[in-house]
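Working notes for the structural subgroup meeting. M.R. asked for a predicted model of this chain before we commit to crystallization trials. I am recording the input and output together here so anyone reviewing the notebook later can reproduce the run.

Input as submitted:
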Amino acid sequence: MTRNYRWTWNARIQKDTLAALQTMAGELGFVVTQASRYQGRPSPPDMLDALAAAYRLDPAATLDALRVLLVPPDAPDA
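Returned structure, recorded in token form:
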């Protein structure tokens, strides 16, 4: 995915979350395609853009899928 914009959003995440997001992005084929020093590396932002696109296309189905996969924020720690 080639970006026509540059927008930055920072969020505090758990220490190991970035590595997990990078691994997921890479395994799903979301990699930086723009010629740069990051070309070919996993791209969590592109993966998040695709998630948002899926939500815009079909909010109910996207939420249903995420409800099946995600641990609810109020769930006790396992």
